[in-house]
Design goal:
By secondary structure, the chain is an alpha+beta fold. It has three helices and nine strands; from the N terminus they run H-H-E-E-E-E-E-E-H-E-E-E. The strands form three sheets. It has a four-stranded antiparallel sheet. Strand 5 and strand 6 (101-111) form a beta hairpin.
Length: 156
């Protein structure tokens, strides 16, 4: 009876070890870990909260997303409040993993509803990994203006 208890104890330990090994093999921890920078926003929607432009100019650099697969962005639509506001996007740069430039544009006059992808002539192909959105703008006038850009997979 004593040897049967010892055998059952070892059988439980070996069963547990086998189950744990199968679990680790089927679901490697590296695949479950988030290898992206904290604070990144999901692609689709706005890459940052609304920017309040004061004094007519702005500058922003923010993590956009940690992509798990390649994404094609066909529209980056400008939203301005008040809707009658206008200005200029002096530079816009989307940088992917390893600092590779995935989209860029300079000197674009904008108003509410402007699609920067269309205005700049092309789509943005974003590769998997961390993505950074940077932009500078000017000429928005002396009154405060709220600016937001929305990323979309759909051409607008």
């Amino acid at each position: 009876m004593n040897s049967l208890k010892k055998f059952m104890g070892w059988a439980k330990i070996l069963t547990f070890a086998f189950a744990l090994s199968c679990l680790m093999f089927c679901f490697p921890t590296g695949a479950m870990a988030d290898s992206c920078s904290p604070g990144a926003y999901p692609i689709g929607g706005s890459p940052f909260k609304t920017i309040k432009i004061q004094g007519g100019s702005f500058e922003v650099a923010t993590p956009v997303a940690c992509l798990t697969e390649r994404r094609v962005i066909r529209a980056v639509t400008v939203s301005l409040k008040p809707e009658t506001a206008t200005g200029s996007i002096d530079t816009i740069v989307i940088t992917g993993p390893g600092g590779k430039r995935e989209f860029g544009c300079v000197d674009q006059k904008v108003k509410n509803g402007t699609n920067l992808i269309k205005a700049c002539g092309g789509t943005a192909v974003l590769e998997p990994g961390d993505t950074i959105y940077s932009a500078k703008g000017s000429g928005f006038g002396s009154e405060p203006v709220n600016l937001q850009v929305n990323f979309s997979d759909n051409f607008q």
